[in-house]
Specification:
It contains three helices and eight strands. It has about 240 residues and is an alpha+beta fold. Strands 3, 4, 5, 7 and 8 form a five-stranded antiparallel beta sheet that branches. It has a three-stranded antiparallel beta sheet with strand order 1-2-6, with no helix packed on it.
Length: about 240
Amino acid sequence: MWRRVKRSFGISATHLAVRPHIPWYLRWGLTVPFVLGTLALAWWAYGSGLESAGFHRGEAEKELTTLREQVAKLGAENTQLSSQVAQYERQIQMELASSLETSKQLKNLSDENVRLQEDLAFFQNLTATRGEEGELGVHRLRLERDKMPGEYHLRMLLVQSGQRAKEFVGSYQLVATVLRNGQRATHLFPQDAPENAQFQLGFKYYQRVEQSIRLPQDAQLEEIQVRIFERGASEPKVRQSVSLS
């Protein structure tokens, strides 16, 4: 009995705490303003720290907006300049092509002028020194390499002297002598038939002839002989050879 009383009223007895009762809405009404005030104070301290470090949010956003506008402007200018550069390149290419074409035409006209002057001098000389009536001659015979390997270009001027010469009708044949694999061989042009239209002749006083031929690329051309045949004749009326100029 005594021990039970001692445990209830002695030093080791359970303590009883008496606290005043506070409604929940009063507790939240005190807690929420405190929390909001703490957050506001922390935000103010954060902003003050940034301003102290030289960082201003409003100015930074303004500068960022300005930089974005500059980037967009520079991008538009870059696109415009690229378009102008492409346009100028096309214009330069067109002008260059036109210049090359003009230079080519000028060279052709210059070559044609030189050839006409040579023809004039030749015919003046031919008029001064007339040959026999109806005499046929091969003049200004030239042989040159063409653009492609194995291709050659031949030029000649056929002239029949005399003021009352009859019209010459016939054909011509080219005989190319080549050296191939250490052996000499000949190639005839035309190779199909003597009646080839490209090799037909018909003139009274003169006729200019130009002919291209093709030989094997490994063949070394030594010379070409021109043979002029009158229609119906089996033997050539004129023979003349030429080498590469």
